[in-house]
Structures are given as structure tokens and as C-alpha cells.
Please model this.
Amino acid sequence: MRIGIDAMGGDYAPDEIIAGAIDAAAEIQDDDKLVLFGPREVIESKMPPDIAKMPVRIVDAPDIIAMDESPIDSLRKKRKSSIAVMAKMAAKGEIDGVISAGNTGACVAAFQMRMRNLPGVNRPGIAVVFPTFGGPVTVCDVGANIACKPVNLYQYAAMASTYCSKVIGIDNPTVGLMSIGSEDAKGNEVVKKAQELLKSDPKINFVGNIEGRDIFNGACNVAVCEGFVGNVVLKLTEGLVDGLFKAIKQELMQEQPELAMKFKPVIQRIYSKYDYNEYGGAPLLGVNGLALICHGSSSRLTIRNAIFTVKKFYSENINDKITDYLSETSVRTTDGQES
Amino acid sequence: MRIGIDAMGGDYAPDEIIAGAIDAAAEIQDDDKLVLFGPREVIESKMPPDIAKMPVRIVDAPDIIAMDESPIDSLRKKRKSSIAVMAKMAAKGEIDGVISAGNTGACVAAFQMRMRNLPGVNRPGIAVVFPTFGGPVTVCDVGANIACKPVNLYQYAAMASTYCSKVIGIDNPTVGLMSIGSEDAKGNEVVKKAQELLKSDPKINFVGNIEGRDIFNGACNVAVCEGFVGNVVLKLTEGLVDGLFKAIKQELMQEQPELAMKFKPVIQRIYSKYDYNEYGGAPLLGVNGLALICHGSSSRLTIRNAIFTVKKFYSENINDKITDYLSETSVRTTDGQES
Model:
């Protein structure tokens, strides 16, 4: 498998990205190749001297898209950015999968535009795996599509269930629909119609509406929601966990500094148990290709894990399974982009 | 002030509700009166023998609406429920404010239907005060209105700013608009249009778009969002905090039980510092009356505090200030319900 990696994307790029790629290069199989995208001289300066012996190639992409740039503007102006060049090569079939921890909006736009959608998919969605106290929960969509229709939510359920079962390893995963109450009558019009679609398909292990709190209590393995809500869920979770651990630390330091020292390894153990880096990025499900979008703060370990997640995505033929699934469903969908 | 209290609403009703009312009764002023709504014999059986000397009255409301009943159906069938009878008396001016920890949907429906909207308000919104590490943050709306228009978000900002400044005591509060990125261009159409309205009013201390994480990092004093998103934010926060503390406890009990015992009071101190019971319920801003909706799990203390919050709401003439504000704004609004 040929895996493209955006060496310039992320808060700790290029160092952590390249380090993660080098780690993975030592472990991957003989027929795998990693392709790093970015300014050639920058990447070369960070590579070890024995690069010629490693399964690593560099593709020069001199333009850099900053994390906070406007996605559409930056893609229009910076045609030689790592994201744009990588997306183009993937669309041509010159690489088999892509990984980026860069500007999420630019990634989604470039990957959708170049790779197009899988047959039967109206809108791709980003699926993030939340490590929770009730096990991993796959939440889709977290921001690829903020004008969500009922059929999109249905397709997120089908795609995220496939991903959850084949990549995360949960057989026949339960699916919850994010709403404002668990009763069927709760929710807005999009949610109510999506609920009907989900109920109509016996292949989806649908458990009904869920509420915000249910993400963390084992109510379901897959949670579907529109991208705006999913994005708020993702960022709120990050902000709250960070804030809460800071509050605990502050409280301990003020009152019992000796207890704070003892508590530190406990926090570290919890962090490592519920570490989202473990899942190495979020797939953009529904594009005709394999795209993994990583967190901006991705470390060397995240990138290393992302490479193995993409390999699993590839070896499990997730996209074929999604296409088969959607071609067999009785839920009406139209090919290609919806208006 | 005559304050109506739904004695039958909440997970711990009627005991905790009545106990909270009795606590407050000992502290309120001479011209205040508490009016308890529910089945007379149930309430009387929970009252102390010296009830005649207390500033407490009972209004018989024999029907009971369960926490998980359909709001509209239950109001239609149970015309003598505590929520329905209380809302009717408030609309007639026979009581000056209402408090309920019961079925939120039924409360919102009954209070809106009976009290009607303040002049200039299109849709009421529920404002919840989150005790955060960066100080209290007032989030509006958390679920009263799930078909939100830009003008509703603008009005939430105006109403919640007034409440935040007069009841929470934060002068000229900063206002953030919940979106999926802090840049102006991020967000759906409703958010983008609301942003224009918020920018056009110099009286609103608007700081721009915020993301989910910003609720907890002091980015703003008031956060406005549509009710679906706000409801997910509220319930997610509750679920995550509970889950995280459980995870810490479990980790400690497994590895260092002696440390767990020492850690318990730390958690308790954090809980009491960030205790939402302190703010005693969430106002339904924009109705022509004073309505406070409390959490289903409200304790005696929550109800006691809610009574003093309603008193402040009343003495600060919040509704007059909101009406004045909206009558002076240049942002176009129409009176009464919008279609």
C-alpha cells in the first residue's frame, strides 16, 4: 500500500509527523511505501541519513496552508500545498490512502473535490472514535457537512457501523441518533425523519435517540449527528476534560501538594487509557479513497498509529463494503452530490 | 412577591421540593408568599405542623405529569396538573413567578402558551448558568426552541446579557456565538446571519464565534446557540463530568485504595465549587412572566436557591429591561410568535 502523509500539517509539523512516519517505516510490510508531502528541502533536513534504504519517498509540495487559513481560499491560491498535491495524486490512483493533521476544512474540501464520493453516498462525514468509559464510541459526522439531511444521517450510520465493526472490531455495533431526549418524539425535523430511515433498515442495529450524556455511558457503539453538533461535541469534550484535570490539579496543589504528586500518575494512566491518539485519526467516510484526518495536536505516536489505521481501512476493503451496503439498501439515495 | 412552586416536579419530588420551600420560607421577607402546587393531601402530609404561621399556601392540583411524558399530550390530558394550574395562575397575575423541576418540555409549553412572549421577543430561550473554571457562563438556548432563526440568536444574546449582568452580576458581559470555528466564515447559514445581527448592535459586547471548548476557558460570559446544540452541550457536560469522576475513582480504587479515600474530599470540594445548584435553575427568558426551570435532580438546596433567584429576577425588573432593550434596537424584530 502507498500511503501519502502531509508532512506540513499539524501543530507539531513537520518534526512529529516525520518522526511518526519513520517509526512506522520500520514496522510496515515490504510492499508498503510511505510518501511524504511538503517542501523537499524541509523534509530532507529532518530525515535520517539512511533514508535511501527506507520505504519512504518525498513529493515536493512547496506551498504551506496554515491551520487557521480559509479552506477554500487557501486551496485556490496554494495549488502546490501538501494537501492539494496529495489529494490530486490520490485521485489519480498514484497513492492508496492519505493522512493529514493539517487544516481540517482544507483537507475535507480537497479530498471531497478530488476523490469524489463513493457510489450511493450523498455527503461524506468525519467519524471520530471517542475512547469512553463504556468503550470506544464512533461519532459521525463531526464537521464535514453542516447542512445535514435525513439521508445523510442514515448513510453515516451505515458507513460508521461498517468502520466500527471492521476497524474498531465491534461486531454488529449499536447505533444511536443524537437528539435532545431519548423518546421518539423528541428532536427536530431532520432527526425525526432520519429516525424513520434508520428504523426502516433491519441491517442497522438502531437503539433509538440518544442524548448528549449517552456518548459516555455505553448507550451505543456508533452515534450519528449532524456535523455542526458533532463538532461542538468533539471540541467541548476536549475543553472540558482539559479544564477538569486542571481544576483537580489546582485544587490539589493549593490544599495538599503532596497528594498532587501521588495523583499525577493516576491522571497519566487515565489519559493513556482514554487516549484518542490510539485510534490515530478520523476517517472521512464516503469519499472514493482512504482519507484519515488527524487532530491538529497529533504527536509522533498519533501519526504512527494513523498509518496502521489506514492500512487496516485498506486491507478490510471498507469502501467496497460501504458501497455494497448502500447498493442493497431500500432506503432511497441518489448517486453523487446532492444539491 | 408571590412565588409558585411545582411541588410534584423533579426526581426527588415532593420531599426535596417541599423541604427547599420550607427552608426559604424561614428566610424570605414579610411581603413574600410561597404557593405550592400539587395534590393537597400529599403536600399537607409533608408540611410541618406550624404551616399556618408560615408564608406558604397550597393550591390543589391533583394531576401529575411524569418526567418522561409527552409534553403536549400530558398538558392536553392533565389540565389539573401542577404545571398547568401554576402557569394559568401566573398568566392571570395571581402569582408573580413560577419554579418547576418537572418535565421541562411540559414547563416550556405551558409557560409559553399561558404567559405569552414579552413584546419584541419572537421565541423564548432557556438560559443555563454553567459554573466553569473561567467563571460562570450563561448559555442560551438549551432546548426551548429547536427551529432557530438568526433573530432568535440575536434576542438570546440581548436577553441573556441582561440576565447575566443583573442576576449573575457580571457587568457588560462578553457574548460568544457557538460555531464550529472561531473565524467569521465558519458556521452554518443561521450562525452567519446571526453574526451580522450581533455585530450590528454596539450595545452587545460581542466577541465573535466560539467553539465547544470555549465554554470552559473563559472566552465569554454569555454563549448563544440554537436549542438543539445547547441541549446536547448541557447533557454532554453532565455525562462527561460524572463519567470522568467515576473513571478516576475506579482507577484509584483498583490501584491505590488508600489514595482514593484521600481524594474523595478533593472531588467534593470541586463539586461544590462548580455546583450548578448554586444558581438554582434556568430562566425561560422572553416569556411575559418569571419562570425558572430547575434540573430534574434538584435538591432541597437547589429549590431554596431558585426561590432567591426568582426574587432577584423580580426585584431587578429583568423583563422590563429586556423589553426596553428590544424596543430600542435597530435589529428588525416582529412582535409575538413568528410563524
In short: The two ends of chain A are 35 Å apart (CA to CA). Chain A has a mean pLDDT of 92. Chain A is about 45% helix and 15% strand.
